[in-house]
Amino acid sequence: MKQDFTVFAVDDDPMALDLIGSVLAGQCLVETFPTVEACKARLEGTKPDMFLLDVRMPGINGYDFCREIKDDYHLRTLPVTFVSSQDTIEARLTGYDAGGDDFIVKPFAAEELERKVRVARQFEQNASQIRQQLDDAEMLSSLVMANMDEYAVLVRFLRELLSCEDETGIANCTLDMIRRYNLDGAIQVRTRATTITISPRGTNQPLEESVLGHVRGMDRIFEFKNRGVHNFEHITLMINNLPLHDPEYCGRLRDHLCIALESAEARIQAIETESANNRKDSGIRHVLERIQSVTSGLTQTYLKEVTATSELMLRLEQALAKSFVSLGLTDDQEHELSDTISRFSEEMVHILDSSAEAHEPLRQISQELNQLIGRNE
Asked: What is the fold, at CATH topology level, of the domain defined by 6-129?
């Protein structure tokens, strides 16, 4: 055994202490004490890896000292082996009730003492490993729980971000997120229509607007003292109280904020695009409605002109028929004049029919426009 394992032996028999020291010499560090009081004084400065306790001693006996050890938060995990000349069931049960871990009967063989110490040392090493594993597991569990809480804040932000319809909603949503991270800061959101700056101190505070207006032209992500800035085209976030005392947590926060701000930037761009598309759709709709109105008006005007022309030709024929009586024309002259008027009337009808064919595509366009406008409604 290497001499990095310390044993405190307490016995009022000097020969027993000498024997223990000689048997364990070179295998571990041994400190001997004639009384419990002497051992307790030494415990104020150092802590052993194992106790060897005589049962019967003046003052505090081994059983009572063992109980004190097991009640001490800093000593209770250390193994205690009793060394006693009493080899009875009562002695062993008393030692067990006191919290002891093992029992050696005097006189003992050197091999037995070495084996007891070796077992105790192996037990302590295993227990130490288990404690370390438990500490690591607890630390990992705490870290996982902390990360889960942090990710929960981020996920909630991303979910709420989808329902934001304007720059004010996005700014307030971002401000609410950094509050959940116990951070203080200011957010500026810029769109084509407006710029808004929000912080716990209010909206569009002059000094905050000035500071954010200055830092927005700097690097994408940078820090000065305990402040951190994330810059994007449409949004700038300045944190005033980065937890620099906790580098790991601070590093995770930087990652969370970067994801959050990239998502907010994408949402702003989507809103801008949607707004532009709405304006474009509104303009297109207005033009379509205007074209539809014009084509419909042209069609109505054409139909009125056709009707008026037909009526005019009919009245002309009727007027000529009545005038033949007063004009004194011969039958041949009347027939010739009637034929001439009929030819012109037929040509006029042909022209109107040709115009009707020319207006047919215009009528179809009007119908298609009506249908297109109806789909946009």
From this structure: Rossmann fold (3.40.50)
**pTM here?**
0.44
Q: How far apart are CA 183 and CA 318, in angstroms?
A: 96
303 half-sphere exposure, CB direction, 13 A CA radius: 8
Per-residue pLDDT of the chain (377 residues; tens, 9 = 90+): 445 789 999 999 999 999 999 999 888 899 999 999 999 999 998 999 999 999 989 889 999 999 999 999 889 889 999 998 888 888 888 888 899 988 998 888 889 889 988 888 888 777 777 767 766 655 554 544 445 578 888 888 888 988 888 888 999 999 999 998 889 989 999 988 889 999 888 888 888 888 888 888 888 888 888 888 999 999 999 999 999 998 888 888 889 899 999 999 998 888 888 777 766 666 666 666 676 676 677 677 777 777 777 777 777 777 766 766 666 667 777 677 777 777 777 777 666 666 666 566 766 776 776 666 565 44
- Biggest alpha carbon distance in the chain? 174
Q: Which superfamily, per CATH, for 144-275?
A: GAF domain (3.30.450.40)
**How far is Cα 123 from Cα 129, in angstroms, rounded to an integer?**
10
- φ/ψ of residue 119, rounded to 5: -65, -45
Q: Three-state SS for 135?
A: helix
